[in-house]
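job 3f2a | input accepted
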Amino acid sequence: MLFKSRICIGILLLPWFPCTWEKCIFDQVQRSIKVVSPPTGQYASAHWSMRETTSEENPAPHSSKHQRPKRAEIHVESMTAPQPIRIKIWVPSESPALTELESERLMPAVDEAVGEVSSLLSVRPVQHSLLLNRDINKYCKFIWRNSSTVNHMKCGRANENYRFESCLGVIIPDEHLNGCAVYPHPEHPVRTMLRSEGTGVPETDFLLYVFTHSTEKCQAESGILAYAAHCQSDSEGHPVAGAMIICRETLSMERYTHEHFVQTVIHELFHVLGFSKDLFSQWKDCSLSSQAGVYCWSHGQVTSTDEMGQVRLYSPTVIREMQKHLNSTHPDLGAPLENKDAGSDGLSSHWETRVLQGSIMAALLVEPSLIRIDPITLAALQDMGWYSVNFSRAQSLVWGEGEGHRFGSVSTCNSSAFFCKDSGLGCHYLHFHKGKCLTDQYLDGCQIFKPLGNASECWKEENQGSGMKGSGEIYGSDSRCFISNLTRLNNVTSSAAVAGHCYRHRCTGINKYQIRVMDSDWLDCPAGKSIEVSGYQGLIFCPDNRICKYSDLAPPTSRQKADDLINAGTSIESSDDVMEKDMSTPHPSFMHRSSVTVSEAEVIVAAVLSIISAFSLLSAGVLIYRKCSSARVRVHAASEPSFRPQTPPTQCIRRN
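job 3f2a | predicted structure (656 res):
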C-alpha cells in the first residue's frame, strides 16, 4: 500500500521541542510615545518640505478602499532625485559598558541591518543637517492661543523644570535639536532664547538612537529581543527619528545568532520607518515621474473589514502584489492584519500569520532561514508615499503562493497542503527542517509543520547522528526534508512510520531535482510523485513547487560557506562537488561580496594540490565503483500519497 503508515515500536524519536519564537511589542511601545512634529503653522519639514494646496471647490475627500480620493497637489521645495535612505545610528554615551562579546555582536548586526534597509528604500534626501524638534508642551508653561495676536501659538512663559527631550527614554543631545524661545508679550516680536539651535546631524535622513540595556520590558518576557518606536516626524507625518532598545540579554544568550539579530533589527526598523497602524492614515500615493513637480494624494482610509470579518490593508501596490502572489483577480484582495495582537481599534502593525507566514513583518520571527523580506511588505512601504522601493531585492514568499484569495481563512485552512492536521511529523514548507504539526496563538486553530529545535535541521551536517536508524538519511548543506517511510530491507523493523527525512538533493531544472539516499546513486525525483530506492522498502514523496523553484532560497550554512569562500579567496574541490553545490544551493538575494587578490605562487600551489586531489578522488571512485552496485529507482504515477502528506547632553558616539 502506498506510504503504508503503521506506527512502529522501536522507531520512536528522541524528544522534540519547538523552536523559540520572538515576540514583537511594537504597538504597545508606540502607543506610549508622544510623537513630536514641527510646530503648527510653521513651514518646516525635516524631510520633504511639502505643502498641500487644495482648492475649496475641489477638496480632498475621505476615501475608502472602494474610492480613490481626488488628487491634492503637493509642491516640493527640492526636486533632488530619490537616493538610498541614510540612516544614522547614534549610540548614547550613557549606554552601559558592554563586554567584548556583546560589542562584537551588537554593531556589526545593526550596521548590516541598516545596510539592507538602505538597499531597499530610497528617499528624497534631507538637504541640510537633520534637526529634530522640541516639544513646546514640555519647555513651555504658557502658549499664546489668541489667533489675532502676533505671537499666536508661540511660547509666552517657560517651564522652569524643562531639562531635555527624550526618545523612548534615550536623552536626545541638544546638538540634534532646534532652538526654543519665549515671547513675553503677545504683540511684540522680542524674544528670550531658552536653548540655542543645534548643529544637527549631517547627511542623515533618519536618526536612530540605539540603547542597549536590561529594561523591565526585556525582563518581563524572554521572547523580547528588542523593541522600538518612532518619536519625531516631519510636517507630513513621515518619521525622521526613533529609538531602538536592545535587550542586553539578547547579546549574551547561548542561542544567539547573527542572522536572527539582523532580521530583528530590520523588523523594528520597518516599524519605525512607517509600518505602524498609527501612521496608516498618513499614507499617500505619490508619483515621482515628473521633473515639473511631485503630485501626491491621500489614500484616505486604507483599512477595512472583509466579508469574513478579517481586517485588511487596502492600498494600490499591496492589492496588486497580493493578487500576484495568490494568483487571484479578486478586486478587494488586501493584505490581512493580525487579529491576535489588534488593539481596541481592530488594527495591528503586523501581517496575519495564517496568510503571510514567514514574512519579515509577521508578529513572530523564527529561524532566520525561514523569514523573507517579501513583496507584500515592500508594497506597503511603497504605498506610504515616502519611499521609492527596490522591488528587485524582494525575497520569494513561498507560503500560500498561487492558493487563491480565500487562502489562510480559518474555515478553509485544512484544505490547503500548506497546512496540516492530526499533529503528525513531516517537513516545514521550505523543506530545510523536519517538523511537527502544531498550532499557536496566532494561527486561530489552524496547524502548520513547525521546525523543531532538537537537531531537525537537514542542512546541519552535525545532526547526522540524530537521524532515524535504517532510513538512509543524509544531513548536509544540500540536504532537504522529504516525506518518507523508507527503511533498509535488512532492518529489524518491518515498516517505518511516515515522517520527514533528510536526504541530499541537487537541482536539474526549475522544479526538477534528484535526491541521494545513503549508499544510493543520484535518483530522479519527479515533483508530485513518489519513488522507491533499491535496497530499501517504502517510498519517498517528491514535493511539487517547493524544491528547486526559488533561486533565492538557501539555508544559513550555504550562505555562510559562500561568504567564507569569498573571504578565503581559494578553495579546492572536485568538479563534481562544485557542480552539485552550484545546482543545489541557489545564490541568495542578500550576499556580501568582496574582491580577492591571489598571488602567482598561491595559484601554482593550488593547481598542484588540485591535481593531487583529482587523482585521489579518481582512485577512490574506482574502489567505490567496484564495491557498490548502482541503485535502481521506480517512479510511481500517484500524484500524492494516500495519507496526504503536507509539504510544507552627554558626549555621544556616532556611527557613520
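job 3f2a | The CA atoms of residues 477 and 561 lie 9 Å apart.
job 3f2a | closed
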